[in-house]
Amino acid sequence: QVQLVESGGGLVQPGGSLRLSCAASGIIFGFYNVGWYRQAPGKQRGLVATISSGGTTNYADSVKGRFTISRDKLESTVYLQMNSLKPEDTAVYSCTANWRGANYWGQGTQVTVSS
């Protein structure tokens, strides 16, 4: 059974930092392209960042220079380091893994940026 389990969300003040983690099981993690998406209330889910099996990264323009995606293949975990957080970063953040047509999602973790 494939599982992606996110953790690390919470409430943070503007300008603060959080690190999200997504632990994968049931897949050969090293083969998969993985990433983070987010959905704010009343908005469509959108890309935050992705990292390929080879380590190539891609970021949404709104998070470039503030967020960093990384992966640990030995631990089957993908991370999202979020710095200089803004209220508009408030959303449910979900991780995803895909490879050869197989696509899996985690349940999401809430990030709230507010003073």
Summarize the structure.
It contains no helices and eleven strands. The model has no long low-confidence stretch (mean pLDDT 96).
What are the SSEs and their pairings?
Blueprint: E1 3-7, E2 10-12, E3 18-25, E4 33-39, E5 46-51, E6 57-59, E7 67-72, E8 77-82, E9 91-99, E10 102-105, E11 109-113
Parallel strand pairs: 2-11
Antiparallel strand pairs: 1-3, 3-8, 4-5, 4-9, 5-6, 7-8, 9-10, 9-11
Description:
With 115 residues, this protein is an all-beta fold. It is 0% helix and 54% strand. It has strands at residues 3-7, 10-12, 18-25, 33-39, 46-51, 57-59, 67-72, 77-82, 91-99, 102-105, 109-113. The strands form 2 sheets. Strands 2, 4, 5, 6, 9, 10 and 11 form a 7-stranded mixed β-sheet that branches. A hairpin with a 5-residue loop joins strand 5 and strand 6. The protein is globular and about 40 Å long. It starts with a strand and ends with a strand. The mean pLDDT is 96.
Which terms would index this structure?
0% helix; 115 residues; mainly beta; globular
